[in-house]
């Protein structure tokens, strides 16, 4: 049985990855989920796995080198999938310190623990061990609206404390690959969407606000463009890179779904109007009149677009979910899981697990 150490597994992408892996491999793998349970970590996302013999949750900070090293000593870790990161740009602008600590120092701690556990006396590594560092397209900076794309060899040009901290963590991983021959890969992905996303991010925020008749805030002119990737497609890509990726390589993971922010909001409103039953009182609350333009975010990148050519050519992965299908699935999930959203927006989701994992 192969053992995976997943950092940040209680977060949005991490929890979706765990769902995907158990759906694919069932009892053939073991997952050790390490999460600090900050505001973005929600164990309700993984409640169905709590009783499984092949799932272990450990509340820990990835910056705690002693605890992380002890985990590697206790479990024979075959794969590390490193999601854990502070990721909200607005929060990084207000408090960059915590982003540098978690995203840079935390990655260093994870690299050192894995290196110490996997390295042989002669400097080689135990066969089959792999470390995957999950990063973002934001490290590349901003593109003009000219049809250009980010490629794996695009120079880094981060514009926010968040993207700068992720760029720094990427360089750390690259340095361990080059200096120590460390068995790692880096993936840089575009904006994810889907179930379990914390409602500070654009899509769940707009869904929740629209259902309650609250304002839908749009930065600047709303014409900032992002490439949207359905989160299950991302989980599949990560698994394929772990199994088929060449050690030391970076792979860009994109959705081929470029959309302006304002278009995303209009699609959400139209889809809600289509899906909600006629007798649902919220149907009358959902309106484009809720759209409210606000002062633009500082350092707001204009456009991101990833070319996933390399991962398709080398590994065979491609995005399977078109945005028109993925957004409908996502909205339906939030409508069917109103209790989850209510617990998250109220903060109640933290109370039970905070008591359990004091």
Automatic annotation (TrEMBL):
Statement: the UniProt record of this protein carries the keyword Lyase: yes
Coiled-coil residue windows: none
Entry's Gene Ontology molecular function annotations: dTDP-glucose 4,6-dehydratase activity
One Pfam entry name: GDP_Man_Dehyd
Cofactor(s) it depends on: NAD(+)
EC number of the protein: 4.2.1.46
NCBIfam families for the chain: dTDP_gluc_dehyt
Catalytic activity: dTDP-alpha-D-glucose = dTDP-4-dehydro-6-deoxy-alpha-D-glucose + H2O
Domain NAD(P)-binding: 5-330
The organism's place on the tree of life at top rank: Bacteria
Keywords, sorted A to Z: Lyase, NAD
Biological-process GO terms, alphabetical: nucleotide-sugar metabolic process
Record protein name field: dTDP-glucose 4,6-dehydratase
Enzyme class: lyase
InterPro entries in UniProt: dTDP_Gluc_deHydtase, NAD(P)-bd_dom, NAD(P)-bd_dom_sf
Spans traversing the lipid bilayer: none
Family note: Belongs to the NAD(P)-dependent epimerase/dehydratase family. dTDP-glucose dehydratase subfamily.
